[in-house]
Model the fold of this input.
Amino acid sequence: MPTPDKQAVVDVLVIGGGNAALCAALMAREAGASVLLLEAAPREWRGGNSAHTRNLRCMHDAPQDVLVDAYTEEEYWQDLLKVTGGLTNERLARRVIRDSSTCRPWMRSHGVHFQPSLSGALHTARTNAFFMGGGKALVNAYFRSAEKLGVQVRYNAPVNRLEIADDHFVAAHVQVQRPNGSTGTERITARACVLAAGGFESNRDWLREAWGTNERGETPSDNFLIRGTKFNQGTLLRHLLNDHGADVIGDPTQAHMVAIDARAPLYDGGICTRIDCVSLGVVVNREAQRFYDEGEDFWPKRYAIWGRLVARQPGQIAYSIIDAKAIGRFMPPVFPGVKANSLKELAGQLGLDGNTFMRTLNNYNNACQAGTFDHTALDNCHTEGVLPAKTHWARPIDTAPFYAYALRPGVTFTYLGLKTDETAAVRFGDVPSDNLFVAGEMMAGNVLGKGYTAGVGMSIGTAFGRIAGMQSAQAATKSGASHANA
Done:
């Protein structure tokens, strides 16, 4: 084992640089602890996946500034219960929900500003508070506030292992660049530590291990795109699970996975790669067949199931098909879609079998029942006599020009993580550590066993980041007192 170059000492060490990590660092510092935050990325890429976010799902019992009407605890819980299919810890989920109703004044005190829901963001004006300037503005505000308060921040500082004795955090080993260009290790001791280093979605080998090979002999994960940072390699998560026996939660194949523009970059495409017209048309695979109900529920509640749906299709690709009637009813993608004056022409441009494509579209069109179309409600426009059914917003695709958008699975973050409780403590053999805590994507699987609803990831990160920050400061105080009395 290499000898560390040097050793640093701090009250609270925060590992990570996204929303959860920053909330933890700010809370710990406000509580009086000295804090060092280690961000694996360089400064220009700081913020992790949080830099790509745009809103926070908030409980509120009455209208509040940018939020309209009310969104009660019970409605929030039912929405979460529905998308997770019951794979959630109700106690922790309700803690997140309740904390979402009180966190925004604190966020504002650290420079975060909010704005009303975007006009193209369907059905979120009541449930989600949008950050002015998006997630990048949020993390920049938090970093500015942290540095002003005296939080030490170091970039290009990936941590590859921890020293843990009897479930008690002792030290972290961080990679450093020596003046001669070689790589060294620095040992950092702390009275308490918060882990907020994200999931493993950018680790291609781990994705292949989790997803394996399908019945067609394909390795599905090879066709996954990563919506966020390339720095979420899951190094510490693997280390905690394999080398220290930390308690685990979640399925390694479950993730916040969205059907995104197939032309998106491998990493950091972010929110702009989403294709939001699925509920306004039909989706077919490369065999020109429909495979799921496009109108099952409002898009913010169901958009995150489509990544996994596409991941199960041949070649992990699908095509969202709409006609001219849908234009102007959804947030337009960054890149224009394939456009044609006939459905047959559209099939040709997509390289799909024309006869099968036309049979699929004709069957769908003929199955559409007359109703009152209303994309802001669960309307009565549905299909009959075709599988899969389309239960809402079903209108014939019959008005030129026609458009198609190729879709690939886009992974935001993985749900395999560290099991925790309301104190955010990492658990070993169901025993909570007294000074090692976890927040954000590294523990989101406690609340999200599967599925997703817009803005809940930021709710989890904010709630447990703040909890972990407070708990770590208290643990550091106890540790300092015990050392002083020793």
Notes: The chain has a mean pLDDT of 95. The radius of gyration is 24 Å. The domain at 7-199+234-251+416-485 is CATH 3.50.50.60 (FAD/NAD(P)-binding domain).
